[in-house]
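Protein modeling request. Please complete all fields; requests missing the sequence field cannot be processed.
Requester role: graduate student
Desired output: 3D structure, token encoding
Chains: 1
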Amino acid sequence: MNASLHWLASQTDRNWLLLFDNADNVDLKLSKYFPSCSFGNIVITTRNRELRHYTAKDADADVKGMDIEDAKNLLLVQARAESDVGNIALAETIVLVTF
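Delivered output (99 residues):
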């Protein structure tokens, strides 16, 4: 795990995404899985509102009832990713897996 976190933290010239899907247990202490850097993107999907403390102010979104197209767009915006063909396809794959 430490090698993976170090590698992500060293990727200063790349836009990476770390996804935690269905992270509903507050006892997981997710922050120990975050790289020590101020770049990159981390998305946490959860049904537990107590985990909002991991987000920046106003960075959490209630996606209950969201359709797939809106979910893709939200993911691209929150990941600060360009809406090019590759990123749209990747966002669709992530959204379809998490729905």
